[in-house]
Write a structure and sequence with these properties.
458 residues; alpha+beta; 19-stranded antiparallel beta sheet
Length: 458
């Protein structure tokens, strides 16, 4: 990938994800416009920073302070591989070859050759520095992610397309490899639903304590740049969805913490906890009717999610991803796999991965007795009779040899003698997608036998 689009920082991190994607297959573009005769050194420094493949043109320029490198450009047009960017007024203060003390851009419009359009009413960037590559070496995307440093970036009035998705304000502080960044967002809004009658709004969100540059390098390369440890937090508040003027869903807040570590041997581990408070499904009448029928007044005041992830090379594991709804229950998923290649295309990565184990566990916290009571009423049966019927139906379903080991634990759980049931798949040997093309796997029984299913009741 090329340096040029992000170098425009220009998309100002403002469209960083999309700009990087566009740069992956750059189209030929005209060479950058040569410096004009007598052009101020501050503008020459700006051209040097943008690189030779970013064309910089402008209607007029005013040198504010030649000694300090301060200049203002009017009606600016930048053209590079896959994009064009228009800036009505660009004020560069403290301009130098490796960066600038401050940029002020009002307003900015980004046009991608693929039809993407982004706009920003006002952008402010300070403390920009780009470490140049060694002589004779080109700056690629990986190098650029680690080479860029920004003390502060703020975007006011950002919008995607013709205002489909908008952001009131977005700020980023202390971006750069080895720095713990802070991100704040206000008033994220946009449409939802196929008819275009619905909308969503998030009042504010933020995260703190993450080395975003290091995480970006890991995302792009799939390989850790070096040992790192960070403990970050994030918060989102006041989320709402509506349709045709009626509230559909809302949530008070989502708070979370994450411990992320890249060890010296390359092993990656993360432990995360999130708590969702004040979830309400106002516009889904069927949900409220079901809750009432089960004897609940509303959804729990807090819904928690906890997870732990581990990866080293192609081997990865999620020992536990647990959703907890107090008064309802807890469901936990776990898996372990091998052959993961983050750089491969999705279909190739899926074909290469192998399943080592898979687990799902449910611990009841009051939902199951309520559910059985409701279903028994609807069937005009007693609860014991309904339980007996369910168990008999399950026994008929699990009569095959591969499924029979599941029957006793399931009976204990459905009869109410235990509150937890776990079903796990542990194949005798690693199981990839290609295994399911085996002519021998011509029945559900054969597939389940290959999975190595087992159940445990607690």
């Amino acid at each position: 990938m090329s340096i040029r689009v992000l170098r425009t920082v220009l998309a100002l991190l403002l469209v960083s994800g999309t700009a990087l994607a566009e740069a992956s297959n750059p189209a030929p573009v005209p060479s950058a416009a040569a410096p004009l005769p007598g052009e101020a050194p501050a503008i020459q420094h700006l051209r040097a920073l943008l690189g030779p493949e970013i064309g910089l043109r402008y209607r007029s320029a005013t040198v504010l302070d030649g000694a300090a490198g301060d200049v203002r450009l009017e009606d600016v047009r930048l053209r590079g591989p896959g994009f064009e960017m228009l800036v009505r007024t660009w004020t560069a203060l403290g301009q130098r070859e490796d960066g600038a003390r401050e940029w002020q851009l009002d307003p900015v419009t980004w046009h991608g050759d693929d039809g993407l359009m982004l706009s920003v009413r006002q952008a402010r960037l300070s403390g920009l520095a780009i470490r140049q590559p060694a002589a004779g070496q080109a700056m690629d995307l990986v190098g650029l992610i680690g080479a860029v440093r920004v003390d502060h970036l703020s975007l006011e009035g950002a919008a995607h397309g013709l205002g489909e998705v908008s952001i009131g304000r977005l700020t980023l502080e202390d971006y750069g490899l080895g720095r713990l960044s802070r991100v704040q967002l206000e008033n994220l809004a946009g449409p939802w639903g196929s008819e275009g009658l619905g909308g969503f709004n998030l009042a504010r969100a933020g995260m703190d304590g993450f080395d975003i540059a290091a995480l970006a390098l890991l995302q792009v390369t799939g390989t850790p740049a070096g040992p790192a440890r960070m403990r970050g937090s994030f918060l989102a508040e006041a989320f709402a969805m509506d349709e045709a003027g009626r509230s559909v869903a809302s949530a008070g807040s989502l708070r979370g913490e994450s411990d992320f570590e890249i060890a010296a041997d390359g092993r990656i581990t993360s432990a995360d906890r999130m708590v969702l408070q004040g979830l309400a499904l106002d516009g889904v009448a069927a949900v409220q009717e079901l809750l009432t029928e089960l004897g609940y007044q509303a959804l729990p005041g807090e819904i928690a999610l906890e997870s732990r992830f581990e990866q080293q090379g192609g081997r990865f594991a999620l020992p536990g991803l647990a959703f907890t709804l107090p008064g309802f229950g807890q469901i936990t998923f776990g898996f372990e796999g091998d052959g993961f290649d983050p750089q491969a295309a999705p279909e190739v990565a899926a074909a290469q991965m192998q399943l080592l184990s898979l687990m799902v566990r449910y611990r009841d916290d009051g939902l199951l007795p309520r559910l059985f009571a409701m279903l028994a009423r609807q069937g005009r049966m007693t609860v014991p009779a309904f339980r007996a019927q369910i168990i008999a139906q399950l026994a008929a379903l699990l009569e095959g040899p591969a499924l029979r080991p599941l029957l006793t634990p399931a009976k204990l759980f459905l009869s109410g003698q235990v509150q937890e049931l776990e079903v796990a798949a542990r194949p005798p040997e690693p199981l990839g997608l290609a295994a399911f093309e085996d002519p021998g796997l011509d029945s559900v029984e054969a597939v389940l036998a290959r999975l190595g299913l087992a159940a445990t009741a607690r």
